[in-house]
Design a protein that fits this description.
With about 350 residues, the chain is of the alpha/beta class. The chain has a domain at about 10-195 and about 230-260 and about 295-320: NAD(P)-binding Rossmann-like Domain (Rossmann fold), CATH 3.40.50. It is built from twelve helices and twelve strands. The strands form three sheets. The chain has a seven-stranded parallel beta sheet with strand order 3-2-1-4-5-6-10, with helices on both faces. Helix 1 (about 20-30) packs across helix 7 and helix 2 packs parallel to helix 4 (about 100-125). The longest helix is centred in the N-terminal third of the chain and has 23 residues, at about 100-125. It is globular.
Length: about 350
Amino acid sequence: MPEHFTPRAILVTGGAGFIGSNFVNSFMAGNPGCRLVNLDVLTYAGNLENLKGVENNPSYRFVKGDICDGGLVARLLAEERIDAVVHFAAESHVDRSITGPEIFVRTNVLGTQILLEESRKHWQAKAVPEFRYLQVSTDEVYGSLGDTGFFTEETPLAPNSPYSASKAGADLLVRAYHETYGFPTLNTRCSNNYGPYHFPEKLIPLMIHNIMNKKPLPVYGDGLNVRDWLHVKDHSVAIECVLKKGAPGQVYNIGGNNEWRNIDIVNLVCDLLDAKLGRAPGENRGLITFVKDRPGHDRRYAIDASKMRRELSWEPSYTFERGIAETIDWYLANQEWVGKVTSGAYRDYYDRQYGVKP
């Protein structure tokens, strides 16, 4: 299918986070003629060391700032003649949303509304010939599935955590801006991502880190919750595909067609690291510790990504066997990165690289 839209200057929000930084690295490698501006407030989850490979590229610009700052957003859109926004910036850890939901509402709902409004005004001023706004969301907005079935783009939204509720609210604002103003929006909803640069509070990198340090491996409840796993590099390609080929106003589910129970993921990582670390078979499984279940813990997610395959000719390229092996190898080979993240040392990289704070 030919490309319908080719951006010339793209604003990426949250591009120093896990999925955002993988997208920035992938997009810049494949689109040398496009300028990319990365707007990130650099919360704990933002790590500029993920972007060392592009920081000296003349087509790349990093701006430390908040999506809730409408004046800053408007200025960047105008001075860079932005014709596409890809919105990753979000508070995203479910556990943190349970203990402190306010920041999730501020960033994920209010921040999205401000970004939408400034983008709409930029678009309506006809500052650029064409424009796209792409909202990166999650399958968690759909709630929980039973033992069978899949989430489709028509599945009603039924979020069960403050995090997923804030993402659902943002998605509905995106829909409203398209329906009310004709604003050319796109919305993607993905399954669980894994791969390089994943912050070690999430399941797979946490298990890898704890196994290497012989720490307990906490598993919620009975460990039988099911997730569909998608390699972050496949997700990055899918987002670019939606940006260039997607139909405005549409939602696209992005999944790996790769369901695993949490306990099976943990056992697999344990077994692979037994071999890689020279430990006795089954040694790492002895570190597994079942802990009290998370409140409102969704039992199963599973994505039907057939619309992506049918309409945009996208499907994941990674098998899980290849993806998880490469992910483990990446963490083993990047212990300096892991050490800086777990110690917090990465957080002064902005000051060291960019000098004085804005």
